[in-house]
Amino acid sequence: MGLSPEQLAEISELRSQAQSTLRATAPGMEAHLYKPYQVLDHGFVRVVDYMGDDAAICQAARVSYGRGTKSVQNDDGLIRYLMRHWHSTPFEMCEVKLHVKLPVFVARQWIRHRTANVNEYSARYSILDREFYIPAPEHVAAQSEVNNQGRGSALEGEEAARVLELLKSDSTRAYDHYEEMISSDGQQGLARELARMNLPANIYTQWYWKVDLHNLFHFLRLRADAHAQYEIRVYAEEICKIVADWVPFAYGAFEEYRLGAETLSASALDCVRRMLKGEEVTKETSGMSAREWRELEAVLKG
Amino acid sequence: MGLSPEQLAEISELRSQAQSTLRATAPGMEAHLYKPYQVLDHGFVRVVDYMGDDAAICQAARVSYGRGTKSVQNDDGLIRYLMRHWHSTPFEMCEVKLHVKLPVFVARQWIRHRTANVNEYSARYSILDREFYIPAPEHVAAQSEVNNQGRGSALEGEEAARVLELLKSDSTRAYDHYEEMISSDGQQGLARELARMNLPANIYTQWYWKVDLHNLFHFLRLRADAHAQYEIRVYAEEICKIVADWVPFAYGAFEEYRLGAETLSASALDCVRRMLKGEEVTKETSGMSAREWRELEAVLKG
Amino acid sequence: MGLSPEQLAEISELRSQAQSTLRATAPGMEAHLYKPYQVLDHGFVRVVDYMGDDAAICQAARVSYGRGTKSVQNDDGLIRYLMRHWHSTPFEMCEVKLHVKLPVFVARQWIRHRTANVNEYSARYSILDREFYIPAPEHVAAQSEVNNQGRGSALEGEEAARVLELLKSDSTRAYDHYEEMISSDGQQGLARELARMNLPANIYTQWYWKVDLHNLFHFLRLRADAHAQYEIRVYAEEICKIVADWVPFAYGAFEEYRLGAETLSASALDCVRRMLKGEEVTKETSGMSAREWRELEAVLKG
Amino acid sequence: MGLSPEQLAEISELRSQAQSTLRATAPGMEAHLYKPYQVLDHGFVRVVDYMGDDAAICQAARVSYGRGTKSVQNDDGLIRYLMRHWHSTPFEMCEVKLHVKLPVFVARQWIRHRTANVNEYSARYSILDREFYIPAPEHVAAQSEVNNQGRGSALEGEEAARVLELLKSDSTRAYDHYEEMISSDGQQGLARELARMNLPANIYTQWYWKVDLHNLFHFLRLRADAHAQYEIRVYAEEICKIVADWVPFAYGAFEEYRLGAETLSASALDCVRRMLKGEEVTKETSGMSAREWRELEAVLKG
Lengths: 302, 302, 302, 302
Known about the structure:
- Chain A is α+β, with helices and mostly antiparallel strands and about 300 residues long.
- The first copy, chain A, has helices at about 5-15, 25-30, 55-60, 70-85, 105-110, 155-180, 190-195, 215-225, 230-245, 250-260, 265-275, 285, 290-300, and strands at about 20, 35-40, 45-50, 95-105, 115-120, 140-145, 150-155, 205-210, 260-265.
- Chain A has 3 domains: about 5-135 and about 200-260, Gyrase A, domain 2, CATH 3.30.1360; about 140-200, no CATH class; about 265-300.
- In chain A, helix 3 (about 55-60) packs across helix 4 (about 70-85), helix 4 (about 70-85) runs parallel beside helix 10 and helix 9 (about 230-245) packs across helix 10 (about 250-260).
- At the A-D interface, helix 5, strand 6, helix 6 and helix 7 of A face helix 5, strand 6, helix 6 and helix 7 of D.
- Chains A, B, C, D: One of its GO terms (molecular function) is NADPH binding.
- Chains A, B, C, D: Keywords: FAD, Flavoprotein, Methyltransferase, NADP, Nucleotide biosynthesis, Transferase.
């Protein structure tokens, strides 16, 4: 992950200093705090802070004075009810702050989720590190032939090797020239805010990203999905594991009613009802497009 | 404040249970946690949870690995710099969750600040308490004659007494009838979602309100201002005291660069420059409207 | 709807003055512009302005230079695709501005949708009109016995009459006293910002509400739903009719993939798959709670 | 600007087709509609649609039924009042949609303004054009020695030439290899979503960007400022010209109370008051840091 010994020491120090607090704490989350979990070749995700737990969701839903928990079972049921009926505001009462290191082209997708707070490392102010995402050979994939915005199978040996060679050499050269341009050794040195424009989109950046649980679930539903680009999906999957330990009831409800759920269109519902009455529904009699019919078949097969 | 013994006991219990955490804690805020601070006759503000402290602001601004503090003095300087130059994102990295009890007409003003998370006590689902805001006699004020949306001096004795009598009796009657309509004693009982419409805007409601520090400062700048309506200003002032204990550096910078600062228009700046050169600038030669000139005079007098 | 002859004349005048523009126009929406459509006893919805049409959604999705339309059929397909796959940003490229008159208790529900722009008539600044929502007898309903936040059947004759009498007399008295308090006839006159607190939640307010199409669809999905409170649902239904004329393709896709669609949980999907394989699934073997099983049965019956 | 003859023809066609509308129109804006205004070497800004005008701001502030204009002078005064007292919601009632072509490193700064709607050209789905920002020689500047995030004077001849040569050759090579990797000529062809990672941050992207007038003013205040990076400032300046023609009163108020205004801190105000009383205030007696004192001196000199 490219953390320096100093950085690792800073993290260790933080993990060694327990404080006393009257706030709600989530033991499952305390175990994760500050630890960097590797994603891709040089990236990571780590939790820097959090607010709330499963009980805090119920407490807000009930606008209660104390912890608001009647019983653990009760809380689970309430959380499932809230998730099922799209009552999103109680989930907004939990918050998490992550430190993420990620390639710029992934960051550009990520930032499209606007309901979050972000502090990104500034390449106007500071010098970026020489770290580039180079895909593992099995992820050097061909353009998909059925999906304009997707990838197909892995490229075959020689072509993959050629791609990797180009990515590596171009990154190296771009960074060499970046350093050369900003150097003040025997010259004035180009402004950092200009020099950064020579760096390709596979360079790593990092940011603090803070988001409430409702909006985080929305992010995860879209980005942990099979259709998301692999390079952002692996971040989403890592975050899923963390959230499952933080708010186990809420995460369980999220799996049941969002991640593992499917929305059936009016036409799809009509087909299912007819099937259940014993009718043999076909693509032709479904009233749906070929593509939607194929999608429905996949959903019903599971 | 109308807290029941049970509610007070729940709060005491919460304050008696310290937990161990690896997160950043703010000692000044721990002292406030859960305690209700009375505002108006039956309202309160209390902190339910918080995330971050002064150091967390710097940590985010530096996208650092550890606590990110070089020295305390250093942090103060950085925070003042960020506030002065409108770098708002590091302040968004702190978050606070409040439980507020407030009259409905105050809630309607408050909710206009949209960048916050809210869970309000539901009068569709539950029965509201018989608690109404009745102003103290010194706050029963006349319509301002110079400001269409403000109040002037306190009403004189008899008129004030008449007003208070009307507010009290109308509230009482409205609540009596509310109870009468929802009662299922010898009748079906009106739906709560309908019965609530009979209740006046001085009835108390309550909510959980969660907001980041940047947006909280924006709220406080507008609502702790002398032009804000008294009934919301007292909430803002109570929150100011809490924030000053939570993030003392950030609050100090807020006082210096926002609360105690003034924005001078292009024309006002021009006047000040001329004055400093020794020119005698008057309303007539200022190039400003009478009202703006009066406002500038007030600013320059202090 | 309580529009004065002057107001109606202002509206007529606006409708009589066509302008020339190079912008995209939606003929279906031009027919609605400015016209007030009555909702409840004194409320209304009317379109004050709009931006974009079906083609504008496609144009944004394609980031195109011209109108971006290849063919009408093509646009319909693209819009359905975008809606089906939760690509929400192109729908955000259409915007509508409504003028709405509505009871305060409805406004309080409405405002919970935060991603919109709002200018409300100010009762600090101005005097509210004497207009209160009094439900039609068939909507004076009992508290639901199965749903804590809902209503059941209409109250029977005498009880309904009593309720209506209370609502009317309390509204009248509250407004009489409001007028009496603010009057400057022989007295100072209470500040409007204070006097308004005596008014009940069934008084009408009004606002300009501006929202993009994506967030409007979100609002409509929740508020045109059978579980929404009747008094807000009628507004949502009126807006649905307007939107159907404005962006017919987008509205059609909204009906197919949102309004008429259903989200099946992971467990519900499992049940449906087993049913389609011929298994007799019962409440007991479904693995779901009684309530969820009941909901699934309802969905599958249609 | 790199618009193809086809694109220019599409734009011409749009400008030739006037429609009839009942909506408010802004003649100053109609003149700009669709026309691309060049920014940097290959970028542009063009207005694709707009909603509202100066009168619409007043109409919303008054929640009026008709156009809401009493007199033109009246509107100007109201708009200045709203701007001066930070009443932001009426300005949110105007909206503009822009099509912008800009280098990726500028887009990354721009997107930090989250309160806007964005549709960006997708490099997952489509192939980017071979267009890179190469600064004009006078903008190839050295790193600032006083400001860590700024630039100083232009680099001298030979060094500037070296920088330009590196930027050009690296861009060319990166794009050559991008094309080579995605080519399906005699090979499978790398997925576009992967190949894009080889492209540097000076490549041009484009998007539709829709924002309300209040948030646009916020963007312009920060980005048309002398401290903003040159490459984003030129976009902001171009937009300023367009807005001045669209809503002349609002833009005038923006210049008077925002762009040309200055916020004086509590300490700075104190200094100014002492100066006006005749005291000779110095850096030492100002109670301010050296940097703040320098900033105040600059403000007071004008």
